[in-house]
Amino acid sequence: xxxxxxxxxxxxxxxxxxxxxxxxxxxxxxxxxxxxxxxxxxxxxxxxxxxxxxxxxxxxxxxxxxxxxxxxxxxxxxxxxxxxxxxxxxxxxxxxxxxxxxxxxxxxxxxxxxxxxxxxxxxxxxxxxxxxxxxxxxxxxxxxxxxxxxxxxxxxxxxxxxxxxxxxxxxxxxxxxxxxxxxxxxxxxxxxxxxxxxxxxxxxxxxxxxxxxxxxxxxxxxxxxxxxxxxxxxxxxxxxxxxxxxxxxxxxxxxxxxxxxxxxxxxxxxxxxxxxxxxxxxxxxxxxxxxxxxxxxxxxxxxxxxxxxxxxxxxxxxxxxxxxxxxxxxxxxxxxxxxxxxxxxxxxxxxxxxxxxxxxxxxxxxxxxxxxxxxxxxxxxxxxxxxxxxxxxxxxxxxxxxxxxxxxxxxxxxxxxxxxxxxxxxxxxx
Length: 430
Hints:
The structure is a single chain. The protein is of the alpha/beta class. It is 34% helix and 17% strand. It contains 13 helices and 16 strands. The strands form 4 sheets. Strands 4-12-11-10-7-5-6 form a 7-stranded mixed β-sheet, sandwiched between helices. A 4-stranded mixed β-sheet has the order 1-2-3-15. A 3-stranded antiparallel β-sheet has the order 13-14-16. Helix 3 (66-76) runs antiparallel to helix 10 and helix 5 packs across helix 9. The longest helix is centred in the first third of the chain and has 18 residues, at 116-133.
């Protein structure tokens, strides 16, 4: 049966649809997508764009993948959703088994939630409820580092960078947290005691009111695409243990192979008390996230009043999302994804290197399947976006950053076109 194609009403979109981080009075242009497959987005006018974003870092297997499609269809024919209160189902159990097998052995309890931002909310609530169960009700704040990003909901927003985040807009509404200087030691550099001096001071002064430290391990994503030394995390783990503070890793952007390891924490060889997962969890098919914690944290929470963890989304453990997440993980570990990521890393290093010589460029950095060109000045998004589309690629910069996070299945030729487009566009910057 032929699929009927209908033109997208862009006038209606412009008048009524509110896109992320966009003004409704002066919206940025949008490009109508008619379908997506492999590593391509096909626009309504027939143009094909090579996707360098993996749809905000989630579509690691590309689009319209037969294995993931089948997982959705097969599960849909059985049940699309049932409440998770008082019920359970095979997709949730299978997914939890996979996550426990992949993450550090100490993380034994899995809470399935709606989105990455919500998984951070859940982690924060876990940390606060843990200390409340122990009678330490004063330990109800978070400590984090600057230049971080953890989501747009309120608790998550409170631990985003206080300057580049949204704190000034919502001052007096979001809880004020503690912020230390971001790690200065770059990924391949040694990390010294001086690098942790500020966060050590914060813990020493305020540990009695800090429930947990939350941090993006190795890669600070939307807060600046900064890569820092794994040894920082080793030393941070020791500090948290010394000052009796929980450690939360936000692996929403870095999980499932993006940095060259299944999880970024593996670069440091340590385990957190709580971990947040999302984005690539479902291969970019549906919204789903997970917050994992230790038996100690979970059992302590349930030993106090009211004896349960106080969170329960309507669509928690949605069977469709769990089924496709399970299929995505199985697909990832079924092939040598590490070699694919190393190949992408080599292509990004080679392809973006010419940008280093440009006067507008402050830095070029690559780690795993992440390539970043940092500029001295912010970009004009509307102008730059059109330049990329005209070159047949989809790249969505922000601030002073032009970055690539391609699907793992991308071929060298397509990656070469992507990196060349980045170099060409950056050349026009002054």
